[in-house]
Specification:
The chain is mainly α and 66 residues long. It has a domain of 43 residues. It is 88% helix and 0% strand. It contains two helices and no strands. The longest helix is centred in the last third of the chain and has 39 residues. The N and C termini lie far apart (79 Å).
């Protein structure tokens, strides 16, 4: 085999070896983490929407005032 092909094969075997080391979360942990991400995303989305509304209202007041 050529040197290039040997390097590709060794990289693939290293990759397979690394994938075997991965520890996947169980269903309950996955459910809890997914729920946490969704809840935090909704809360942050609501906060951003409220700040956006307040800033828009403030800018409209300043523009119409002058």
């Amino acid at each position: 085999m050529s040197k290039d092909k040997t390097q590709k094969v060794s990289k693939l075997t290293e990759l397979k070896r690394e994938f075997k080391k991965i520890v996947w979360p169980d269903k309950m942990t996955l459910f809890k983490q997914t729920t946490a991400v969704i809840v935090i995303s909704v809360i942050l989305g609501a906060i951003i929407a409220i700040v956006d509304f307040v800033l828009k209202y403030g800018v409209d007041l300043l523009v119409n005032f002058g």
